[in-house]
């Protein structure tokens, strides 16, 4: 077998493994959809202000993309960097908004501080974490478990 053919087979096998892992993760997530998801949707639909999407690090990149997608599809949304929120940017959050907080661990000081600010304003907090027992999950109005298995 030629090197080119072996390389092509390795590439295809890698792509097939990746798609299989992703399909399994989506099926697992689908199985976790329940009334919490419905409550999250209703919270977003009832929002009179903006959806303020917050994260830090990799979840910050995801949060920025979610905010951009929401805005481009007609839902007023803005990205709030969790660390920058602690240095003055928390002022973008108003009592009319909904906070969508993303954190894999659900334990980061910065995101928990943003949630505390949201609570002071009476802002509903939707949280997406990889740890349903995390402090962020417990402090949220609605928590969505987005954990994945390795």
Report on this model:
The chain is α/β, with parallel strands linked by helices. Helices cover 52% and strands 17% of the residues. It contains six helices and five strands. It has helices spanning 3-32, 35-45, 58-72, 82-85, 109-121, 135-139, and strands at residues 51-55, 77-81, 98-103, 125-129, 142-145. It has a five-stranded parallel beta sheet with strand order 2-1-3-4-5, sandwiched between helices. Strand 3, helix 5 and strand 4 form a beta-alpha-beta unit. The longest helix has 30 residues, at 3-32. The radius of gyration is 18 Å and the shape is elongated. The two termini are 33 Å apart. The mean pLDDT is 96.
How many beta strands in the DSSP annotation? 5
Q: First CA to last CA: what distance? A: 33 Å
Instruction: Write down the secondary-structure element order.
Output: HHEHEHEHEHE
What is the subunit arrangement here? single chain
Poorly predicted sequence stretches spanning 5 or more consecutive residues: none
Percent helix: 40-55%
How much of the sequence is in beta strands? Answer: 15-25%
Which structural category fits the helices and strands?
A: alpha/beta
Largest sheet: 5 strands, parallel
Overall mean confidence score, pLDDT: 96
Shape: elongated
Strand order of the largest sheet: 2-1-3-4-5
Number of helices: 6
Task: Determine Rg (CA atoms, Å).
Answer: 18 Å
